[in-house]
Amino acid sequence: MTKREGIPVSSPRAWLTLGIAIAAGCAGVSRSLVTPEVELVNLAVLGASTETQRFALTFLVSNTNAEALRVQEIRYSVRLAGQGYLNGRSSVPVTLAPTGRQTVRVELETDGVASLSTLLAFVQGPDNALAYELTGDLVLGTRPERLLPFTYNGEVPLNMTSRN
Question: What are the beta bridge partners of residue 44?
Fold first, then answer.
């Protein structure tokens, strides 16, 4: 039996101490996270010119995990009615409560949409709903950085006012 700093290496106490240290080091890192659901719930036109459009996008993020998640940023790409893309990222970190839901609002200026009049031709129903395809990553505030990819397809009301 060898000794290192007074504790026999082959003792049960040494193995127990090692096991506790390993478990404590991994306690804050869950390997089985379920990617939260991210959907676009509001799209507001803030302004438009002949070259660019300004939008406010509101995402609803639903955390189905039993632990809180610190999201450093949301990187997203939204395809609107197959007519163009809104690509961007959120700038303010959020913490999602366990099994909680939270909205995240971002503003974006883009030339990725042909024109506002083109989009208006694709709105449907009394809510002025517009079909969209959303893809992206939730960037967790961990070291190393951890990405949780998401996708969502749906319809979102197109609002012509910035109050939403």
Answer: 56, 159
